[in-house]
Write a structure and sequence with these properties.
The chain has about 55 residues and is of the alpha+beta class. The chain contains three helices and three strands, in the order H-E-H-H-E-E. A three-stranded antiparallel beta sheet has the order 1-3-2. A hairpin with a 5-residue loop joins strand 2 and strand 3. The longest helix is centred in the middle third of the chain and has 13 residues. The protein is globular. The model has no long low-confidence stretch (mean pLDDT about 95).
């Protein structure tokens, strides 16, 4: 999960985040799980209107 928060860009989509971090995860489901955990912890949000990841 640290890899998602490391070297983050202010404006990026979920796909951008996945492409940037895909080598750190076994598969997409592990990546989605990491996003879910970061969301529950309040460290990121995904804007439903724009689809952009917003970091806390």
């Amino acid at each position: 999960m640290k890899c998602i928060l490391a070297d983050k860009n202010e404006v990026e989509t979920v796909l951008d985040v996945y492409i940037r971090t895909k080598d750190s995860f076994y598969d997409v489901s592990e990546f989605i799980h990491a996003l879910d955990v970061l969301y529950v912890l309040g460290l990121l949000n995904i804007n439903n209107m724009t689809g952009l990841v917003e970091y806390a």
